[in-house]
Amino acid sequence: YQLQQQQNAESAIERCESRLARVECLTEWKKENEAIKEQNKVKKVDFENALAAWEEEKMKAKAEKRKPGWNKPKWREDFKPEKLKPRPKKVAEGDDDSESSEESGDEPAD
């Protein structure tokens, strides 16, 4: 009975440690994604300014019956917003073995 209690206490400590590690991982992930969002907001403002300038040039060109001097700016191609990182998945108890098996399973899929 005492052995079982000791094992339960050890497993509870392990679970607590894994939860704390997960919390740290998630807070780091959130900070990284917030930084990416801020960078994308700045890029979006630049894009909107460029688009407004292009619209103005387009209207002038239309009034003068000519083509605009440059192409319309494209959000994804010209400003290249960064993609958000995917949320970290919950790691099972055998995290070293599962990661290596997942990596080896992904390689032949190419």
Characterize the structure shown.
The protein is an all-alpha fold. It has one domain (2-85). It is built from three helices and no strands. The chain has helices spanning 2-63, 75-79, 95-106.
Question: SSE order, as H and E?
Answer: HHH
Unreliably modeled segments: 94-110
Radius of gyration: 26 Å
How many separate domains?
1
End-to-end separation: 52 Å
**Into which percentage range does the β-strand content fall?**
under 5%
- Helicity level: over 70%
Biggest sheet, open or closed, and with what strands and sense?
none
Average pLDDT over all residues: 82
Number of strands: 0
Shape: rod-shaped
Assembly type of the chains comes to: single chain
Quickly count the helices: 3
Find the structural class using helix and strand composition. Answer: mainly alpha
